[in-house]
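Following up on my earlier thread - several people asked me to post the actual chain instead of describing it. Fair enough. Here it is, all 122 residues.
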Amino acid sequence: HVQLVESGGGSVQAAGSLRLSCTVTGENVSRYRNFCMGWFRQTPGKEREGVAQIDRYGSADYTDSVKGRLTISRDNAKKSLYLQMNNLTSDDTATYYCAAEHAWGCSWRPDLWGQGTQVTVS
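Reply from S.P.:
Thanks for posting it. Predicted structure:
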């Protein structure tokens, strides 16, 4: 079966940077180049929120709080998704999830999730 495997989380000081990666593994994963992919995050006691998403053409959308600081990108040849995170603040502390939406367009409603990676900003 298909899995989304995140890496790159960790601890960083405020104003620092991190780069998250997500790799699609399993059978017949080349089709994921056609699907919307995104990053979501969640803190204890709060609902999971969408951070960034990118469609098959590379068109990206961001939640307002991260615009200008976080950049989503994808490398279909490597079956990978990335989130470059710059100028981080304590408000960015959360568990970050890679996600896929089995659709050509993006609607912030993924149906496949990774296991999550923790980002802590102090």
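The chain has no helices and eleven strands. That should answer part of your original question.
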